Amino acid sequence: MLRERLLVTLLLLPILIWIIARGGWLFAGAAALVLGLAAAEYGALFRNAGLRPSLQLLVIGAALLVLARVELPAEWQALTLTGLTLIALTWHLLDYERGALRSATDFAVSLSGIVYLGWIGGYLVLLRGLPEGQWWILIALPAVWIADSAAYLVGSWKGKRPLTPRLSPKKTWEGYLAGVVFGGAAAAGLAGLWRIAAGPESNLTVGRGLIVGSIISLLSPLGDLGISMLKREMKVKDTGTLFAAHGGALDRLDSWLWAGVLGYYAVGWLT
User: Fold this and answer.
1) Containing domain of residue 165, as a range?
2) How far apart are CA 91 and CA 109, in angstroms?
């Protein structure tokens, strides 16, 4: 399992870095593709539980909201979300007339998936679109991975106090705190390193990196726990098999979704 995870990481990492470096529509398109796949997994989980969320609306809606973050002004982005909400409502009203028994719940699932994966996921595009966004996203995303790794290693070694006994019994307070410390420290180090590449006029500083990384490491684990809650209720280990041993797209994006949001607002506030 560990060998498979490392192989997948080594194969995908250069591609991810190249896409981040190019930015623009390439980055937004890649984000829309992966978030659309995650939306399909989200809908499939509920369909396997006997519900009927619209997979088409989930995928198209999530992708549209991500792409809307590239060029559209804020009021048009809001209009896109509002229009998708009305379309989802209409879809499930008609589905109820066709015989669906739980259309109210189906509508809630469809809408929650569109918002969670499209609107929240779209902040990754906004973060990349900030001045020096390529560097900030190369701070935010590694901070999540390093914090998660530190939490796992320290929790396995010294963890005694369960963080969420029902959702994720192996997570501990000791591991969580280690994740916050190492995630913040890693972001500070990366900010210092990327500043050399960005040049002396850059807004990147070790202090700003530390703040951004600490905020992300402190709060992004909620995304992981949120998807764990979903999987616990649906009684599955992974949301999919897209990334082999790494699970599905939704498994990999659980904390990165919130890294985009937190990074975007933290960077905007600091710079």
Assistant:
1) 132-220+255-271
2) 13
